[in-house]
Design a protein that fits this description.
Structural class: alpha/beta
Order of helices and strands: EHEHEHHEHEHHEHEHHEHEEEEH
Helix content: 25-40%
Mean pLDDT: 97
Oligomer: single chain
Low-confidence stretches: none
Largest sheet: 8 strands, mixed
InterPro entries: I/U_nuclsd_hydro_CS, Inosine/uridine_hydrolase_dom, IUNH, Ribo_hydro-like
Number of helices: 12
Distance between the termini: 21 Å
Radius of gyration: 18 Å
Strand content: 15-25%
Number of strands: 12
Bound molecules: beta-D-ribofuranose, calcium ion
Keywords: Glycosidase, Hydrolase
Protein name: Nucleoside hydrolase
Organism: Pelagibacterium flavum
Pfam family, one: IU_nuc_hydro
Length: 312
């Protein structure tokens, strides 16, 4: 199994991504989950991560809290998308599990230093603050990371928080640029692919029909997100962004993309956080990230329903 650390701001779609990983121990060994400020504040995101771990029945997976705000900017949150709790929709009990005492950034550093070289993958589902902090505090870890797989950015599909930028990158563009320049292999799941993964009513029904508590919760999460996407985009359901990251760890053949140069706009207020992808190789800038552009949504949802059915 590939060893991963999940860095996240749960988030309905983060929660589904976490459930997919925890339901797939044959392919993925989840060493820990680290919360970051993003969809809502850090404390609430950390609490949501604990709730999701309890829902999965995998109480062996430790949860840490990382950074409470972006490197250089005020935190921007997304209650308008995810609700006041960041995880509105399912009715999940107050968690009994507790956070680990260690800071999440130190957990990332210590784990990558402890495990054999190039055996740990960082799965990032929120703003990249914790990853950037770890790389700044311990630059030696960059060469030891197996891969960074992240949900963030958009190019042909432009933005969702501004006309030019995707939320995770917009919130902490300096962190994103630090990560993209770190030298580790990077795979990006931008809106270009995540917007293909629409939770249609049939797909939501398939989760409900599993009739376990995790399937019910996933159906409720997608049901909540749907309201927003129906109103805003006129889509028949909500896209599952973050589960593209953990699905890629299990079935990379679902996704297609291209290794190219990706840089982050950090200076312009108008295009702050834009992911400028040299998809057509019109420059000779270094090819630092595999930019995923498409995916097989039927195979993606089939994988998800199969795995959620293995949970309590
Ligand atoms: C990303 O922003 C968050 O709100 C979602 O959880 C996802 O990680 C999509 O732009
Ligand atoms: Ca997220």
């Amino acid at each position: 199994a590939r060893k991963i650390i999940i860095d996240t701001d749960p988030g309905q779609d983060d929660a589904v991504a976490i459930l997919l990983a925890l339901a797939s121990p044959e392919e993925i060994e989840t060493l820990g989950i680290v919360a970051v400020a993003g969809n809502v504040g850090l404390a609430q995101n950390a609490k949501n991560a604990l709730k999701v771990v309890e829902l999965s029945g995998r109480r062996d997976v430790p949860v840490y809290a990382g950074c409470a705000r972006p490197l250089m900017r005020e935190l921007v949150t997304a209650e308008h998308v995810h609700g006041q709790t960041g995880l509105d929709g399912p009715d999940l009990p107050e968690p009994k599990l507790r956070l680990e005492a260690k800071h999440g950034v130190d957990f990332i550093i210590d784990t990558i230093r402890r495990e054999p070289e190039k055996t740990v993958t960082l799965c990032a589902l929120g703003p990249l603050t914790n990853l950037a902090m770890a790389l700044v505090k311990a630059p030696d870890i960059a060469a030891r990371i197996q891969e960074i797989v992240l949900m963030g950015g958009a190019y042909f599909e432009v933005g969702n928080i501004t006309p030019a930028a995707e939320f995770n990158i917009y919130v902490d563009p300096e962190a994103a640029q630090t990560v993209l320049k770190c030298g580790a292999p990077i795979t990006m799941m931008p809106l270009d692919v995540t917007h293909q993964m629409i939770g249609t009513p049939e797909r939501v029904e398939a989760f409900r029909a599993i009739s376990n508590r995790s399937g019910e919760a996933v159906a409720a999460m997608l049901g909540f997100s749907e309201r927003f996407d129906l109103e805003k985009y006129g889509w028949p359901g909500a896209p599952l962004h973050d589960p593209c990251v953990t699905a890629y760890m299990i079935a990379p053949e679902i996704f297609k993309g291209r290794l190219c140069n990706v840089e982050i706009e950090c200076a312009s207020p108008l295009t702050r956080g834009m992911t400028v992808a040299d998809y057509w190789h019109v420059t000779d800038r270094p090819r630092n990230a595999t930019f995923i552009r498409s995916g097989d949504s039927d195979a993606f949802y089939a994988l998800l329903t199969d795995r959620i059915a293995r949970l309590p």
